[in-house]
Each structure stands twice: as structure tokens, then as C-alpha cells.
Amino acid sequence: MLETMSGTGARRGDLAAFLRSRRERLRPADVGLPGGGRRRIPGLRRQEVAQLAGMSVEYYIRLEQARGPNPSRQVLQALARALMLTADEREYLFRIAGETPPPVASPSRELTPGVRYLLDSLHEVPAYVVDAKYDVLAWNQLATHFIGDLSAVPEHDRNMIRWMFRFAGEGGRWDDEATVRFTRGTVADLRAAYARYPGDRGIADLVTELLGTSPRFAGMWAAQDVGERRRTVKRIDHPLAGPLEFECQVLQVPDTDQRIVVYCAAPGSATREAFRRLAAEPAAFTPARPAASPASGDRAG
Questions:
Q1: What tens digit of pLDDT does each residue of 267-296 get?
Q2: What's the CA gap between 82 and 47, in Å, rounded?
Q3: d(CA 220, CA 187)
Q4: pTM
Q5: Which of 3.75.10.10, 3.30.450.180, 3.30.365.10, 2.60.120.330 would CATH assign to domain 113-296?
Q6: How would you class 151 by CB atoms within 10 Å of its CB: exposed for 0-12, middle for 13-18, buried for 19 or more?
Q7: Which of 301, 2, 276, 286 is nearest to 126 (CA)?
Q8: Segment 133-148, tens digit of pLDDT
Q9: CA distance 251 to 272
Q10: Contact in structure between 24 and 41 (CB atoms under 8 Å)
């Protein structure tokens, strides 16, 4: 009995030390929180971790002090997300808490034949497919006239959200209400994916990168919106087709958690006719850099 209690106490001590070390390495900006002025100690405050994990600060303090009952699997999952743990760190957290780590899930990048057939059948509708963190996986020929031909762009740099914020200061894009609304919805969708795939390094690295490089992204991330999606109408001045107006629809593929982004023009409209003309043209050039925002219809160059 004494040996069991001693082992349990050792695990609680390890858990407490690990939680403190992970909390102290994070900055408020890393998790989308305001800095809050000067801090006497490095890292996040205990109440901030508790807020991010959705638990009482009193309960979290007991965990860091190696007191109270062992945390449940749900609590461990919430702590892993709040502390932005890597897959290895999350496994360690579960094991020192006496739990079997859950399998690490990652967004699917595999394109099903049905989605590929659908994409190729949309001859006069620009469309492309993104995974849960908005990496562009595939596109049809007409879409190249809006996002460029990405076949020569490295796969790791085909991320739509990174494009949105990388060139945030260009062309007055943030003055357009529809662009801002679509971007907010996309960031909210990314936050939902961040919660669904707590062990995925790609999503965690993307969020950390953008929190450190884009104050605008950090502000949207701090809003804590999750999965918000609204109808978006885009009006752009295309270099070949002139003024265009279309609805940007994002269709979810439940089996793979992917999205099909489709530009829908009204029947009989000038934009529908422009799409028809562009479809007869060869694929657009490969841009020197990807479009700043494929969803906005802004073409690079």
C-alpha cells in the first residue's frame, strides 16, 4: 500500500512540475492573449491556463501543487490544447497522469476520387480543395486564373491562411468588409480544427508562426470565434476579365474534413460569361509567389 501511494505521489509531482514548465515557456501572444504589461514571472499566469482549458483556477492550482485527484482524460486533453503541447509532450502528459494517450489525429490530405471527379467536372466554375488547416490540395484549371498555377509552388507554402496574412498590407485589402468577414470566418474555422487535432504539429506550428508574425491574425485569434462561417460576396477587378462579382462558398467534405472552395456566379450574369471565357484560356501562369488571398480572388502579380 505504501509503495502504491508513493508511486502515485511521484506521478503527481512529475505532473505538477511538467505543467509548471510548459506554462512558463509560453507567452500570452503565443496563445492569443494580450500581454497585460510587465510580469513578475515568465510565461502564462495560472488563471490564464485555467481560462484557456475551461476549468477553475483553484482546480488548476491544485494540479500544479500535486494535490487533489488525478485529472480525467477530458481535463488532460484541455490542458494539452491550452499549453500547445507537441504530440510527444501530450503523450508524456497522459502517461505521467496514469492514462493511455489517445491516438494522434491529423488532417487528411488524401483526395477521394469523388472529390477529384467533382473538381474536374466544374469546367466553368473556379474551385479548389483545402484541408482542415487550409493547405491547398488540388484545384481545377479555371481556378488558376484566380490563385495561379500552384504546381510549381512548394507544398509547404500552399497554405491559404498564411497567404492571407503574409501580404496583409498590400492593396488595401483590409478595407474590404467582405474580405475581412471571410478571413475572420476562416480563422474561426482554423480554431475549430486546432481543437479537433490537438496533437497535430502542422496546425500548432501554423498558429504559433502567425501569432508571432501577424498582429492582425493575433487579434482575430484572440476573439475566440469558433467555426463561424457566413455567406461572402466578392467584387474584384480581374486583370483579364475586368470587374467580377461572385459568391464564395465553402463546402465541407465530412469524410475527410476537407473544404471545397467554389466561386459561384449568378446565371446569365456578366461574371458567369467571364468565367466561360476564362475557361477557354490555358491555365494561368505560375506566380512568383502565391496569391495573397485565394478566397478574395486577388491574383498575384
A1: 999 999 999 999 998 877 654 344 434 444
A2: 12
A3: 7
A4: 0.67
A5: 3.30.450.180
A6: exposed
A7: 276
A8: 999 999 999 999 999 8
A9: 20
A10: yes
